[in-house]
Amino acid sequence: MGPLASWLPLLLVALGGFRWARALQEPTDSFTARVGDVRGFAVAAPWVYVDTGDHLHQLDLSLVSLRSLHQRGTYVAVPESFDRTLAGLHAFGVKIMAPIVDRNVLITCGAVVCGYCELLDLRNITRIIHREFTEDASVGFLVDINNKSYLLTAAEFSDTDVGVCPYKPTHPRIRLYGTNFVDGFQIKSTIFIFSNVNVTTDHPKVRLIWLGAKETKSKTLQSLRGAILDCSEGGEARQRLVSSSVIPGVQPVLWTGIFSEHGTTNTKLAIFDISPPTNEQTYNDPDFSTTPTVVNERDEPSTLKPKRVLLKHRFMTSVLAVKMNKWLVVFVGTGDGQLLKLIVDNNLQAHCLTVIWKAVDEHPVFPEMHLDPVGRKHVLVAVKNQLTRVPVSQCGQHSSSLGTCWSAHDPYCGWCDSRKRCSFEDECPASLWLSVPDDLSQRRMLSHSFQEDKDGKIKLVVHTHLTTGESGPPANFSCHFVSSVGELEGLQHQYPQCTCLLPPVIDLHVNVTVSLEGVVVTEELKLVNCTGIIGAPKSLLCSQCLAAGCGWSHDACTWTHMGTLNMTVCQALQSEVDSLPEIFNITQSALSLYGKNNVLLTGRNLDHVTRVRIQGDMDCSPKEASVWSNTGHSLMLHIPAGDKGRVQVCLLMHDGRCHGNASLTYHSVPICTSIVPNSSWASGKRKMEITVSSNVEFVEEVTHSHTDQKVAFSRSSNGVTLRYESLAVEQSQGSFSSSVTLRVANHTLACPTAIHYLPEPKFTTFTSTRTTKHQLLLTIQKRADELQMAPGDLQVQVIQEEKELPCTMEREGQSNSTDFITCTIGTSSDAKITKVTIMYGGESNVLMSPKDYVWLLLLLIPIVIVEPTDSFTSRVGDVRGFAVAAPWVYVDTGDHLHQLDLSLVSLRSLHQRGTYVAVPESFDRTLAGLHAFGVKIMAPIVDRNVLITCGAIVCGYCELLDLRNITRIIHREFTEDASVGFLVDINNKSYLLTAAEISDTGVCPDKPTDPRIRLYGTNVGTPELFSFSDKTSSPEISARHRDVQFVNGFQIEKTIFIFSNVKVKTDLIKVRLIWLWAKEPKSKTLQSLRGATLDCSEGGEARQRLVSSSVIPGVQPVLWTGIFSEHGTTNTKLAIFDISPPPTNEQTYNDPDFSTPTVVNENREPSTLKPKRVLLKQRFMTSVVAVKLNKWLIVFVGTGDGQLLKLIVDNNLQAHCLTVIWKAVDEHPVFPEMHLDPVGRKHVLVAVKNQLTRVPVSQCGQHSSSLGTCWSAHDPYCGWCDSRKRCSFEDECPASLWLSVPDDLSQRRMLSHSFQEDEDGKIKLVVRTHLTTGESGPPANFSCRFVSSVGELEGLQHQYPQCTCLLPPVIGLRVNVIVSLEGVVVTEELKLVNCTGIIGAPTSLL
Question: Taking every annotated instance into account, which residue ranges of this chain make up the domain Sema (predicted)?
Answer without folding.
Answer: 48-375
